Amino acid sequence: MEKDFGTWRIVVIYLASGIFGFAFEASSMPTSPSVGCSGALYGLMACLFIDLIQSWKLIINPWRELIKMLLVIAFSLGIGLLPFIDNYAHFGGFIMGLLTGLIFLPAIIFSKRDLKIKRFLLLISIFISIFLFIWVFRQFYYSTSVCKWCKYLNCVGKWCHYDEM
């Protein structure tokens, strides 16, 4: 990806996804420590997804590629449901990777309509990214409320200690 899109674009996407992923995790599960680069890697996975969608007309068998990518994403998020694996950082990194990918990745324009759609998505992504960063850091520093259903994004089954949340 770095070779195709450029070092600085990937650095910005990687850092934004990683920071947001861990801030999202920290505001969702304040008592559970998290380490690693999984949020940032999910951001890069989201960029691959965006590249697939934006280059749809150029790919030989795009439906097969889409199915393979969705299976990889579903499998890796499924692994995140095991105990001691932080799915919040995965979700946060993926969401920010989608948004920053729409902002920073180069796009192939196929028509005037396509250009308008991609510019609209770029503008919306800028505002949503800024809003989400403000929201997640406000949640981390100022909020004491805990999402009641969010615990099911991180762990399923009898191993999970839901009563600790």
Written description of the protein model:
The chain has 165 residues and is mainly alpha-helical. The chain has one domain (2-164). The chain contains six helices and no strands. It has helices spanning 2-5, 7-28, 38-54, 62-79, 87-104, 112-142. α2 packs across α6 (112-142). The protein is globular and about 50 Å long. The relative contact order is 0.17. The mean pLDDT is 86.
Name its key features.
globular; mainly alpha; 165 residues; 6 helices
Radius of gyration: 17 Å
- One letter per element, helices H and strands E, the order comes to HHHHHH
* N- and C-termini, Cα separation: 38 Å
Question: Which consecutive residue ranges, at least 5 long each, have pLDDT under 50?
Answer: none
Helix/sheet category: mainly alpha
The average pLDDT is 86
The outline comes out as globular
Proportion of β residues? under 5%
Helix content: 55-70%
Instruction: Work out the oligomeric state of the chains in this entry.
Output: single chain
Number of domains: 1
Q: How many individual helices?
A: 6
Sheet having the most strands: none
Number of strands: 0
